[in-house]
Amino acid sequence: MADYSVSPLDLLLSNRQKGYVGIHIEQGVPVLDRDLNLLHDLVAATVRDVVTRYIGNGSPAGEDGFVIQALPAADADQNFGISPGASGFGRCLVGGIEVTLDRLVQYTTQAAGPLSTPTAAQPDPRVDTVYLDVFLVEVDGLTDTDLTNAQDVGVQTSVRLKPAWVVRVAEGIPVPAPAAGHAFATLAEIARPRGNSVITASMITDRRQRNMTVSDMERRLRRVENALLPTFVAPMFAPKIGAAGSPVTIFGTNFNVGAAIVRFGETLATGVVVNSPTQITATVPRGIATEGTAVGAFISVENAAGRVFTSPAFSVQPGPAFGVPGQQFTPANGVAGAQVTLKGDNLNVSGLAVQFGTVTATVVGSPTAHQAVVQVPPGLVPGGNASASVKITITTDQGSVVSDDTFRADQPVPPPAFTGQQFAPKTGVGGDNITIFGTNFNVAGLTVKFDTVTAALVGSPTASQVVAKVPTGMVTGGVSRTVPITVSTAGGTVVSTSNFQVNG
Hints:
- 9% of the residues lie in helices and 41% in strands.
- It is mainly beta.
- Helix 1 packs across helix 2.
């Protein structure tokens, strides 16, 4: 080996682990052999990695190198041939390094170790894997005298790197991981019967990767792609128009290659079912025609081989649609006459009608594409019930849609009212009990106020009567005052027409 400050292979491995791919030499500093060597090795290693990832290992198109073949009986004992193929010259790309073979080589002439005869303890047959081990070797002046520079400086200044290879055999075991600086490629498998030391042609199965030229690889991939790519056949799809939520049947081939993805434009279809290799059913997705006008969307089908588009486009109609569940209208409940805001798409299309259950509601004002205001219709709550739950239906000239959310129609709450003398007594001081007379006092949310001050309630109110204590602190300086009494419930608020006199 040449004289180095640091082993080039060790230096390369440590720098690759750090993610380095190149070197920039600084100005005015010593130039070290390890820096120049590393620059070359990083570039070469990067190129080899790219070639390996995007092309692979194997022989180029039109060549047949490194064929594993049986030898004549006299030479076949624990031995086989490594042939350059019919052309007499073979190449093989392994780990981004190209090696060549220009003559028949026998396995036993290499330094790869002897083969063994399968024993009774091993499988019958024992399958041995033949693989090509490729690496770089250094050539110095002892091998190539030109490197001694005898015509000028008379000293060796550098060494050369040269591809080298050895064919090895993994006997009945997997091919091991290559050591640093080495790359492996499988050439063949040999099925060897127990107790048989001779290797014959019938035992050998070729496992080489061939036709590795980039242009040929592209041609082969295109052939595979065309065989697997989905295609459309007449009538392509039916029907030709429809709104969100409508089913569409798509006709073609190769729909069963991988998971089929269907889109309308760039929006994923819902409810996709691959009925057969030639037919898909899908549902037109929401979010395409949302502004009240029809929109053309090309249908596409994508599988493991690629994506294809229909022509002409599917016409997505502006059918009415509610917003996402849980946000389809506000408020979620109300009494007859209350206003409800509907939220969705295409609510501005002509012919808008809205029903709560089976009862038609009144549309308030002019709807927009995404919002319409309606009044809760009367008659939704059966007699004797406090509420009723109904779905809301939106209908336009483009179709109908029923809400996912449920609206709760409430029975109107009767408002409170004063009757007769309204309250008694008519005067009092803080802490006195005052009886208030009226109707609908037994409704939830009951409060009583003397002017603006809330009074404490005594006992349980009835429909016609409630007792409240006069709040303290309403009179200052010993001067009496008169104040109205206000009664409020969930049904409304009423103010007395007579005033109560607070004396202290």
